[in-house]
């Protein structure tokens, strides 16, 4: 005789994997904060973080929901190439339980460009209709790589200065050339993302 046991109110715990690509540490910091904020939700999901360069197909298979994050580096999202062949196909069937965020100096001030970078990096099929947020990091010219510094002080600066209607993010970037550094990382900006993720836990 087959016996079935039903526990009223019982529910499987959702497992969330945050996969991040971080250039100077800002994206990793946001990933850590996000994991803490998600664990504090009433749903109490199980959350892990892993660098995009280290996540394995076996690890991805074991999770129910995903957050994919990448720092912007000249229109390219850190860690994205490592995910394309083996990880994104595993996530695709769980698209409805997936969210994305980028980290850059200008954040939402560069929404159009960053939206395109997200779609290009993680495929339009996976990203369309999903929560996508653009958070702000910072910059310290004494700590960035020589290649990055050269690009910022050359073509990037010329492009910024040629903009006839600079937004606040561009103005702050231009000011940073004088001060040498600036930081806009803000844990509070994760709140809307946490609320969106909570809907599919």
Summary tags:
201 residues, alpha/beta, Rossmann fold, 2 domains, six-stranded mixed β-sheet, 21% strand, globular, disordered N terminus
What do these coordinates show?
It comes from Rothia mucilaginosa (strain DY-18). The protein is of the alpha/beta class and 201 residues long. The protein folds into two domains: 139 residues, Flavodoxin domain (Rossmann fold, 3-Layer(aba) Sandwich), CATH 3.40.50.360; 44 residues. The protein has nine helices and eight strands. Strand 1, helix 1 and strand 2 form a beta-alpha-beta unit. The longest helix is centred in the last third of the chain and has 17 residues.
Set out the fold topology.
Elements: E1 15-21, H1 26-39, E2 46-51, H2 57-61, E3 65-73, E4 76-77, H3 80-84, H4 88-91, E5 98-104, H5 111-122, H6 124-127, E6 132-136, E7 138-140, H7 146-162, H8 168-179, E8 181-183, H9 191-198
Parallel strand pairs: 1-2, 1-3, 3-5, 5-6
Antiparallel strand pairs: 3-4, 7-8
Helix pairs in contact: 7-8
């Amino acid at each position: 005789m087959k016996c079935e046991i039903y526990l009223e109110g019982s529910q499987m715990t959702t497992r969330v994997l945050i996969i991040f690509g971080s250039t100077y540490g800002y994206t990793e910091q946001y990933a850590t904060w996000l994991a803490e904020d998600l664990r504090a939700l009433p749903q109490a999901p199980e959350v892990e973080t892993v660098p995009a360069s280290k996540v394995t197909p076996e690890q991805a298979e074991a999770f129910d929901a995903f957050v994919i994050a990448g720092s912007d580096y000249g229109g390219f999202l850190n860690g994205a190439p490592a995910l394309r062949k083996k990880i994104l196909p595993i996530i695709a069937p769980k698209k409805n339980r997936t969210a994305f965020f980028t980290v850059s100096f200008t954040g939402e001030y560069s929404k159009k460009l960053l939206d395109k970078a997200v779609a290009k990096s993680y495929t339009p099929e996976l990203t369309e209709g999903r929560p996508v947020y653009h958070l702000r990091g910072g910059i310290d010219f004494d700590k960035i790589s020589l290649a990055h510094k050269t690009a910022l002080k050359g073509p990037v600066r010329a492009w910024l200065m040629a903009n006839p209607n600079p937004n606040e993010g561009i103005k702050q970037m231009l000011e940073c050339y004088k001060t040498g550094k600036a930081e806009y990382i803000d844990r509070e900006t994760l709140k809307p993302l946490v609320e969106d993720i909570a809907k599919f836990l």
